[in-house]
Write a structure and sequence with these properties.
alpha/beta; binds zinc ion; two-stranded parallel ribbon
Length: 320
């Protein structure tokens, strides 16, 4: 097992049945439902899948976890988590901790803005609208690929506050034309509050994932605090229950740092999760909990190697 005796696996949803042609880049985080089922069955056979509330009791009260504990989590709250992922979780009797943005505390959540931006740029380009964004911080992207240019734009737009960014997205949408159609709603739309309650009523736990999913390290102090604190209060109001866990958007050292760890603690969360398996030297910080990021390309042997800690030990042995 990894250090600490437990592991946390992280998903971003499954490929819904009405989304037949995965987009190689953005869909790389989604797994096929049958692959997801086999991974859950592997965990049930070799590990002890715990309920998120058991994890909370361990973090808050020190109640011991069973040996070989694994917590299953899923970020973003796309509609397919309810329509295509929940049925698999239910039939395998596996509980999951879902991290959703505060957009899912409302009736019209829309899409993740950076995914929508990817498609809007693909469909029509920005036609100069990027000049309305704050300048790029640091060096320009190394590779001049579509994805590198898109990520550079995501970073620049993350420096706007959420309402300004929403206004800028409206401009981009207007430039491309109102009639763009992304196909599968289950793939792209976020859960609305009624759907979020269904997930919660099905016995799943809900955590916070900011208001609008920016690159937090590029937000000003006040905006970063608002994104983290208000996502907790808005979801608590929508669900009528405490929100005790937080997951950092993108969740890697390039998108967050010590300030975000402090803000998550000050917001009153019991713990906060990364999307990577390592965070600096020293003992594990409850506000920088590592997770194993499962992607479309993760084979079952790789999944097993990440769970057993073998992957980490190999990386350390190789000095990376
Ligand atoms: Zn996310």
């Amino acid at each position: 097992m990894p250090p600490g005796g437990y592991a946390v696996v992280n998903y971003h949803g499954v490929v819904p049945s009405d989304h037949p042609e995965p987009e190689v880049f953005l869909d790389g985080n989604l797994v096929q439902p049958e692959v997801f089922r086999r991974q859950l069955q592997f965990l049930k056979a070799h590990y002890h899948i715990i309920h998120p509330e058991d994890f909370r009791a361990w973090i808050e009260q020190g109640k011991p976890l069973p040996p070989r504990s694994v917590l299953v989590t899923c970020d973003d709250g796309l509609l397919n988590t309810l329509t295509d992922m929940l049925p698999v979780l239910r039939s395998e009797s596996v509980p999951c901790l879902f991290f959703v943005t505060a957009a899912s505390s409302g009736d019209c959540p829309g899409m993740l803005w950076y995914e929508e931006l990817y498609y809007l740029i693909r469909l029509g380009g920005l036609n100069g609208l990027e000049t309305k964004l704050p300048p790029q911080e640091g060096p320009s992207p190394v590779a001049d690929t579509f994805q590198a240019r898109w990520w550079s734009t995501v970073r620049r737009a993350s420096r706007l506050n959420a309402p300004e960014r929403a206004d800028w997205m409206t401009l981009v949408r207007g430039e491309v034309g109102a009639k763009h159609n992304f196909g599968s709603e289950k793939r792209w739309r976020l859960l609305n509050v009624a759907e979020l309650r269904l997930l919660s009523d099905a016995g799943m736990s809900i955590g916070a994932h900011t208001l609008s999913h920016p690159v937090l390290s590029l937000c000003g102090d006040e905006e970063a605090q608002r994104e983290i604190h208000q996502s907790k209060s808005e979801l608590e109001r929508a669900l009528g229950r405490p929100i005790w866990a937080f997951a950092y958007p993108f969740g890697n050292p390039a998108t967050m740092g010590e300030r975000e760890l402090r803000l998550a603690r000050e917001a009153g969360f019991a713990c906060a999760f990364l999307n990577v398996e390592h965070w600096g030297p020293g003992p594990t910080n409850p506000f920088a909990l590592p997770r194993i990021h499962v992607t479309a390309n993760t084979t079952l042997p790789e999944f097993a190697a990440h769970l057993s800690g073998l992957h980490t030990r190999l990386q350390r042995a190789m000095g990376s």
